Amino acid sequence: MASVPVARLTALTQGYGSRRIIEDLDLSIQPGVTGLLGPNGAGKTTLFRTLATITPPQSGTLELFGKPVAGERDARQVRRRIGYLPQDFGYYPAFSITDFVRYCAWLREVPSKEAGSATEKALAAVGLTDRARDRMKSLSGGMLRRAGIAAAIVGSPSLLLLDEPTVGLDPAQRLDFRDLIRSLARAGTAIVLSTHLVEDVGAACDSVLVLRQGRVVHSGTPQQLAEQATPTAPGDSPLERGYMTVLGNHRPAEEAAC
Ligand SMILES: Nc1ncnc2c1ncn2[C@@H]1O[C@H](COP(=O)(O)OP(=O)(O)OP(=O)(O)O)[C@@H](O)[C@H]1O
Asked: What is the similarity comment for this entry (predicted)?
């Protein structure tokens, strides 16, 4: 039996002013880890902001956890169940890492008597326990990103939206990150992960959506994406070639023969 989608968008139109970025999009997010791929400007962040209930749909509907989100009141109800790591997240530079993550726990309405342990658990999950007192302004890019991931997972959200979470992480940290999202998914968190690193999708995602100019041009497993690859598509792995193929970016056969 098919499970209830964690999120469902129907006939979504979204944009900025009169500029349409996403048009007539139908999309379901299932439990597990969903990778979101697409070139710069495809609309990934715009989609995240819609799923995170930050930007209401210009038209169309959003359902989260099986319920319609039809206005600010509905949005407030579900927001506490959503962890969102934006690409560029704000913070007070003078805050310690603990202050920052605890503040995010407060924003997510984690009960105050649980906030301390939830913060410690989130910091442990990203390997920042020993740096918990460091000030945000003193962190390297990779550590800052890990603090952001801790803020997104604090309080164990049901839906985790991660916009390019591995930017700035070194290879060992990326492997740790993949382990972390696999273990969160095993514990029941639905995760949507936007990235430009196709190999992260192959290693950590159950399904993958490819967005191009605000439209889904592939929805399926990473294996199914790899199977889309044409022989002339550029790329260093079947998955990269499948991705380039569904984007329609690969060179025609006659050019490749030159
Ligand atoms: N606040 C805004 N006002 C006007 N246009 C915007 C705004 N934010 C994004 N856009 C435009 O919307 C389009 C989609 O942007 P979006 O950030 O959603 O893409 P993306 O797929 O996340 O790109 P990237 O991979 O570069 O992060 C782009 O053309 C961008 O210039």
From this structure: Belongs to the ABC transporter superfamily.
